[in-house]
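Q: I have 149 residues here and want to know how they pack in 3D. Can you give me a structure?
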Amino acid sequence: GFAFVPQELVPRWVEEKQYTDVHTDALSQRALAAFISSGGLERHIWKMCKLYKRKRLFLLECLRRHFGDRFTVSGQAAGLHLVAGFPGVNFSDEMLTSMRVHGVRAVPVEHHSLCRDGAHAHQLILGYAHLSEQAMEHGVHALRAALAR
């Protein structure tokens, strides 16, 4: 990493950085370098991309099966989560409590919004990287049950 600090703070910054910096030992650095040089890192990245794409498509399939066309998805078709919008739904604290009772753990986009003016009150961040297909199926079914109340 790096930082831009005023010139008068550079000596103190350097001193603090020396005390707080975590250095990686040479053996770990050599092992990582060998992993990268052998192509192992690239193979791992491609494998994970395929896995997460498959998981995303499965989650979208579950959402379509349970919600039909009553949801939207935004964001890039990459990553470890997606943003699902449910028009007409307000993910209030009461709704989130109901969802937790049904076993659904999702984060409203509104919690990450700078304005928090309700513009994203109908959207959830749904993570899928750590979930099995069975868990995703169960979660979407539980989400539908929670929203039906």
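Q: Anything worth noting?
A: The chain has a mean pLDDT of 91. The longest strand covers residues 81-85.
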